[in-house]
Amino acid sequence: VKIQVVALFRAWRDPASEVEAPFNKLMEWALPIELSKDGSLLARAAETAKGDMGYVEALMPSKSPTRVAMKFKGRTYSPLVIESIGMPMNSPVDANGQYVELAVPMTLCTLTALDRKDWANSKKVSLT
Prior knowledge:
Helices cover 28% and strands 27% of the residues. The chain is built from four helices and four strands; from the N terminus they run βαααβββα. With 128 residues, the protein is of the alpha+beta class. A hairpin with a 2-residue loop joins β2 (68-72) and β3 (75-85). It has a four-stranded antiparallel β-sheet with strand order 1-4-3-2.
């Protein structure tokens, strides 16, 4: 399931802590924790054959983005990952070039498919 959202950050006193820092944290959460140093599936398959690497590590070498949750209108959506995130570069800035407002578009998505039962229970418990 994919959910389109826009996170709005506005600075009332301090653009660095009210806009820049929260946006940077969202960006960290959206990016993989670590990308594979060797992008070649063939090289990883050879390492697996030698016993230097496990099968799961060979097939999925990168570490996934951070899992997030969202509670909205009485429903809890969890676990989710930030599939895509935008940075509106034409947003207003202060005299120091720091953003004073950012409307950040994001696509959040579930890690697994949902069925009707999951949806019916989304008001009560997390989607797992």
